[in-house]
Specification:
5 strands; alpha+beta; five-stranded antiparallel sheet; 148 residues; single chain; Enolase-like, domain 1
């Protein structure tokens, strides 16, 4: 993946320059498949998180209930968040739908900053946007999806 190779090159150059570096957490690297609809993911799947010993809580929300997706005529797919039930932190996500590769950075940033599903749910997302699927999936994690 080009984005991983780029980050590896930057880390290599920083190490050669004597700068402090942080290793890449390869489990949390975002992945995208540019098909129609797009597929994107990072981190643990639900099954992997359970196998790793996490107590898991999942939130899922369909693009069919998203105004922007309906307006684009591309309402197939969903956003699914996998969280640690104890801490609320994001463990991974799976997305299938319109332009989901563009939605991934919000989640990888949230995960790296140890944000919780509740914090994502309470963050105001512009309307109408595809990113509202992430907010609604986070709301589903905490038991309060609005548009379902």
């Amino acid at each position: 993946m080009a984005h991983v190779a780029s980050k590896q090159g930057i880390l290599c150059a920083d190490a050669i320059a004597g700068k402090e570096t942080q290793p890449i957490n390869y489990k949390m690297v975002p992945s995208a498949t540019y098909c129609h609809p797009q597929v994107a993911s990072f981190g643990f799947t639900e099954a992997e998180a359970i196998e790793a010993g996490y107590k898991v809580k999942v939130g899922k929300f369909p693009f069919q209930a998203n105004g922007k997706a309906l307006g684009l005529g591309e309402s197939s797919g969903f956003g699914k968040l996998v969280t640690d039930e104890t801490t609320g932190e994001i463990l991974g996500a799976s997305l299938i739908g319109p332009e989901v590769s563009e939605l991934l950075p919000e989640l990888t940033l949230a995960q790296s900053m140890e944000m919780t599903a509740e914090e994502i749910a309470h963050s105001i997302h512009a309307h109408p946007t595809l990113s509202e699927v992430l907010m609604e999936a986070a709301e589903a994690v905490i038991g309060s999806p609005i548009h379902m």
